[in-house]
Amino acid sequence: WYKSHLNLTFRTPDTLLDSISYYLLNPEIECESVLSSFQDLEQQFQNAQKIYTNLKSQYSIEKEEFLRFYNSSALNKNSYRNKEQLIRDFELFLGNKNNLATPFQKLNLFGTQLPAKKTNKGYTAPSLRLYALVDAYIDSYQRLTVVDSLFKHRAIIEIRELIAAQKNKRGILGYQDLLIHVRNGLLASPNISNKLRSRYPIAFIDEFQDTDHIQYTIFKTIYKNEKSCLVMIGDPKQAIYRFRGADLNTYLVARKLTPQKNVYSLTENYRSTHLLIKAVNSFFGKPESFLLKGLDFIPAKFPHNKAEQKFSSSTGKYIPFTLIEVDTSEKSINHIRREIAHSIGNEIIELLTSNTKINNVPLKLNDFAVLVNTHTNAQLIQDILFEKGLKSSIRSKISVFDTIESIELLKVLYAISRPFDQEHINAALLTNIINFDAIKVIALEEKDESLDSIFSSFKEMNDLWSERGISALFKKLEYDFKVFQNLAISVNAERVITNYKHLKELLISEEIRKNLSIHGVIKYFQKKRGEDASKLKEDEMVRIESDEAAIQVVTLHSSKGLEFPIVFCPYLWNLSIKTPKFVIRSNGLVQKGYLTKRSKEVEDAQLTYKIESEAEYIRLTYVAMTRATTMCYVYHKNGSKIRTNSFDAIHSLKAGNNYVQKLINENELQKKIFLFNNFKNLCPTSNHHYRMKQ
Hints:
49% helix; seven-stranded parallel sheet; single chain; three-stranded mixed sheet; 10% strand
């Protein structure tokens, strides 16, 4: 029975790899399974079979009475919106001949919650054994799914051994292997540490908040006596690279182990204006605003020896920080995103046309930056700025394989690799690269001669690719279908053409480097499209279109270390928290992974993950707000009807109504509300260094 279950759960090797890759890439992480062998499940399996048999039998006895109630108007319409489909799914589930069936998604609607919570007022559900048996079966089946944990546990152990054997056989060491070998060597041979310490008595580690426990152990082992000095420089408030393996716990442990007399703080901010520093301090100055113990906020100060910026504008007084309230109560998220993008464009236009100067120098386009959380949002901002006649450039650490141009080019190449597959050829023709419209594609299908000509063209490209490689293919594709003319009429054509050329260059290079066939190139392209962001290589990052002055559209993670005179933070209210594939519990410098969904340890670890994810988003918010030298705009939602798996860092920092009201009471913020239609007109007037807009 469990073999059948595992075949359904892990249909391909890639499915299994996706579920255990984190543990394979990080061999230091221990993983635990709640079972020691498959035999431990036998009793639970027999129990589940018995409940399933009883459930089928009981439904046949109570079916008539149940359906009479079920088909009435007694049940909650929201939960039982499609009653006919639900009952079909239920009876199909009970029709399994193997005395065991996988529960369908809404099976719980037939359990005890039906009479207890899903029956409308004025109605009473019949008293049936059926409900309790449904709940019992769901619970018993879930207990069986721990077989996934045992299988993954065995796979991790065996594959780790196989990988180690293959590496040893081929003489291969990865980056993580080098770190582990160095650490183990230092711990085993003190003489190595002595020699390194003698040669390099002082070590500085910059960006220490982005290190991990293996690296820290290496340096802690070398620099462990008074004849040496280890200087660890870092800002834990800017620890935002957990997805790359950076471990903030390592920083916090190192900080705890360092004597207080050896701890120094750099409190002066040389980047921002005095009033902007004060504004940002107010957001993060409350106790435990960063959620994690040991991560305290030290307010920044304006340097006494630095001259203040000169700011002038025909609109009036200098306002360094603007909190813009967005009404999200009646609108879709996509609609709100577009409204915000329009408001940013309008505000930039107003600043550019209001004779605004910083240190007597008029504002230019590249004085503005928009910090976004996803490439999709970056593209949206750029498209709307383009509509308003504002040139912008996307600057991000995002893979060119994760762009619209990548999707379209893969469609074209896939069709060429299958030159007689009309469905894929039609998909290729409808891309911006070839630029046929739907009417033209339909017309082709009605004229056999025209369709044959297209098939012939794709066959010729396939033959050319096979004989002379992908570089020759691109030349023919671009000539026959006028590719660059097609791309030139795209919205934001410069960005589109830059991405297309970049993809083309990478594919040509990979084909030459590995001598790939057509299908080898397609497989490589597909693999890159689905690759995790942590594997991103520098030559795959989206390139800047040109060196001309342009508004910088930058992802939050890419903005770290940069500075811009005027910064917009439009989407800090919608930072997505994903359900973790791998539950990792970090306790000091020890990391442990849990492979099952059912245990107290896993529940605790998942809660820890959620808190740590929210804490990291607050740190990301801090990084975003501190990129500005002169002015910062932050968008903040005031509605609650939109339900997403998102995190609102501003709410968490208590910068919502209550906190704003507190600031008002302290005379630190004058609340001005400006009503406008679809964010078309932003009115930039206020008397204080804070303002709110709506």
